[in-house]
Amino acid sequence: MSLNHLDPHPVGEPCVMVIFGATGDLTKRKLIPALSNLAGDGLLSKQFAIIGFATNDYTTETFRKMLTEEIPKYTGSPIDQKLWSWFLERIYYVKADFADASAYQRLKEQIEQADKQHSTQGNKFFYLAVAPRFFSPIVKQLGDAGLTKEESGRWARVIVEKPFGHDLESAKQLNQDLKQVLTENQIYRIDHYLGKETVQNVMVFRFSNNIIEPLWNRNYVDHVQITAAETVGVEHRGGFYETAGALRDMVPNHLFQLLTMTAMEPPISFDADEVRNKQAEVLHAIQPFGPEEVLTCMVRGQYADGNVGGERVPGYRSEPDVAHSSNTETFVALKLQIDNWRWAGVPFYLRTGKRLAQRETEIVIQFRRTPFVLFRNTTVRNLETNRLVIHIQPDEGISLSFGAKVPGSVMKLGLVNMDFDYSTYFGSEHSTGYERLLRDCMVGDATLFQRADMVEAGWSVIQPILDVWHALPARDFPNYAAGSWGPPEAADLMERDGREWRNPDEDGLLKRSHPTVADGVGIS
């Protein structure tokens, strides 16, 4: 079930969408296909227009032609030609430099023309698909041109892509710059992870099922694991990755969003601020890291050459635009403690990395072990614990493991896996992950977008780690082979606590087969 089903107004409001950096990959790979999917599902207003704004030498005619040639490469299914013709009539292009004040006047004229032609009712939103250094200057220019004013019921919004700063100080500065022109409810900080159906379903799964929520606390949960593993390397993003690294790139946004949805208290409603208040509470409750905790609760790694999917791949330092002696991390694992009544004493283990053994993003809820007393005089030697796994990507679904008696005259246990797969149950859906987020911006629902205080709270957790790592550069890089599950220290982080990571390619529970028996315990 998606939160979409709770929305009484699913169709986006009339508006003009302006895409800054419209000739980049994001537009043709994600944004236009997402808008096309919304239109095909009847969720996009008929009173809609798109204006591309970029420095490349296009006209409206050649921009339309380029999109017509490129978009079919990235859509999951053939484009309906009637729908595409409808789209083309609503696409315009303004060639200009982001720093050119006169260009924003031309943009204003184009918006007014589109507004008249397509009856968009004066509503508009600006998508900043550009490098972070352009965020503040573009917003200032929009303000100077009078394009961010909201009056007579007309709205103006700005979508900002991550990263939202590269440390705590820069995040605060970016928020300050944006708020000199915009109000907080005009700013939509987008994280495409939250467009995924299973991420949205975390809240619904927790708060709509009475058999789940009573167990979702320190009394029943042993620990929580959140993994975002990728098999790809940095590829053509070496220059960007050298300035970011896995910690900055993934933890303050993607992983902390999954963390807050997993750990948050029930909001009083699905109103945007009510949900985000509860998420912010989680971030503020994370125990801060001192230098000692950084050294003991954090692991960083960098991939060497290795084999991924049967193919030999180079190490990070051999990637394009990467320094040959680079100390940038491509893997990070950390142990967090949330200091509140619900989660006191329950560790949260997070990890993310490039060139790992399998592509998988998931949340693992490991429940506490039951007492062995009942089985002490049986052949059972070990009791497996219940485990709930929320699969985010690539295969969206939920699985639950529990014990059952293997048929026979001797007491033997089998560990059974109960799987729910989205595509099998609800059917596959053409989605880029941006559909829900774009539509939410059009209707003014900021639930799935980060608020300024959430961004700064996330960086507050990360900043002590950045400081220690800056003072003590890694000396053992590269320290894991491409195609593995990261450096040995990541496994040690769990083993010191008597726990272990759930690695999807090694976990027999993922195999849908009949239970087998070993040492008195069946493992499916």
How would you portray this structure in words?
This protein is an alpha/beta fold and 524 residues long. It is built from 14 helices and 20 strands. A ten-stranded mixed sheet has the order 8-12-13-7-14-15-16-17-20-19, sandwiched between helices. Strands 3-2-1-4-5-6 form a six-stranded parallel sheet, with helices on both faces. Helix 6 packs antiparallel against helix 13 and helix 8 packs across helix 13 (452-471). The longest helix is centred in the middle third of the chain and has 26 residues, at 238-263. The radius of gyration is 25 Å and the shape is globular. The chain starts with 14 loop residues before the first strand and ends with a strand. The model is unreliable at 1-6 and 507-524 (pLDDT under 50).
Give the secondary structure arrangement, pairings included:
Elements: E1 15-20, H1 25-40, E2 48-54, H2 60-70, H3 81-88, E3 91-95, H4 101-118, E4 124-128, H5 135-144, E5 156-161, H6 168-179, E6 187-190, H7 197-207, E7 221-229, H8 238-263, H9 272-285, H10 291-297, E8 298-301, E9 303-304, E10 306-308, E11 311-313, E12 331-337, E13 347-353, E14 360-367, E15 387-393, E16 397-405, E17 413-421, H11 422-426, H12 435-443, H13 452-471, E18 480-481, H14 488-495, E19 516-518, E20 521-523
Parallel strand pairs: 1-2, 1-4, 2-3, 4-5, 5-6, 7-13, 9-18, 17-20
Antiparallel strand pairs: 7-14, 8-12, 10-11, 12-13, 14-15, 15-16, 16-17, 19-20
Helix pairs in contact: 6-13, 8-9, 8-13, 9-13
